[in-house]
Amino acid sequence: MGEDEEDRRRRAAERAEAADYHVAADKRRRERESVRAQVLVDEFVARAAQAGFPTQELMARPWSGRGRYRTGVEGWYLRRDESIGIGTDGAYYVLVVPPERFGRWRTVALEPTPPPLQVGAGGRDGESATLAELIALRLAWGSDPDA
Questions:
Q1: Cβ–Cβ under 8 Å, residues 55 and 44
Q2: pLDDT band with cut points at 50, 70 and 90 for residue 92
Q3: Which residues does the annotated region (Disordered) include (predicted)?
Q4: Which candidate, 23, 28, 45, places its Cα nearest to that of 89?
Q5: What's the helix, strand, coil split of the chain in %, to 5?
Q6: Would strands 118-119 and 129-130 be described as parallel, antiparallel, or unpaired?
Q7: Which residues of 75-88 are buried (b: 16+ CB within 10 A; e: fewer)?
Q8: Tell me: the pLDDT tens digits for 51-79?
Q9: Coil, strand, or helix at residue 2?
Q10: In whole angstroms, what is the distance from residue 23 CA to residue 31 CA?
Q11: How far, rounded to the nearest angstrom, does the alpha carbon of residue 37 sit from its chain's CA centroid?
Q12: pTM (2 decimals)?
């Protein structure tokens, strides 16, 4: 094996190591942000419950946008488009899900996700907002989310 081949393998190993480092660092950053975001979610749940905001079953919709799925999760919608919800237990839910066969006739399993500080990051223009902004807007709606 020549020196050129050795150099190529060494550089490839260095690039792989650097990539692994960046992936791990990004994961740690997201975990720290989720801890901070969960505090905001917990405060929202407490304030919404104290203010008497009515809860409802959060409905999910498939990526196609056609139809709605029952989830069995009680809580509040965080966005007017009903794409994000917060359960009464303080769990954060993304309510746009993969299509599910017979989903309109059955309750679909909905897994909570770690809440982000920046909701919709990387989405289309106007779809990104901080979690704190969304919570403030939702609290301003009061008990009538259609207001």
A1: no
A2: very high
A3: 1-30
A4: 45
A5: 40, 20, 40
A6: antiparallel
A7: bbbbbeebbbbbbe
A8: 889 999 999 888 777 778 889 899 999 98
A9: coil
A10: 12
A11: 11
A12: 0.73
